[in-house]
Design brief:
Length: 125
Amino acid sequence: MKSKRLNRISEEIKKIVSDLIARELKDPRINPLTSITSVQVTNDLSYANIYISVLGDKESKEETLVGLNSAKGFIRKEMGRRIDLRHVPEVIFHLDESIERGLYISKLIDDVNRQEEDERGDEDE
């Protein structure tokens, strides 16, 4: 299947699931600060891997994942209603911690730069 079509389907699923999380899912376990970072659909359209980012502690992230997994049926039904596909992909949620890792690495780089500046400042005196 053409990757262009897969990308369009992935983006459409991303829009739909983002809208559902923001407006229609009323599960208290789902953190309101949940965002979809990416969606990858398999070549045969049988699975949609949805990567989510949750702002909060580890417990909040796990609760959100449990809440979303319990709403899989509703989400898949809504995807089928809004997208004209012969077969609606099975939804699989994954926790995406790349943003947190990026912030951590950025902090480490800033710390190293600060230490180097301090060491250079001591040598100049």
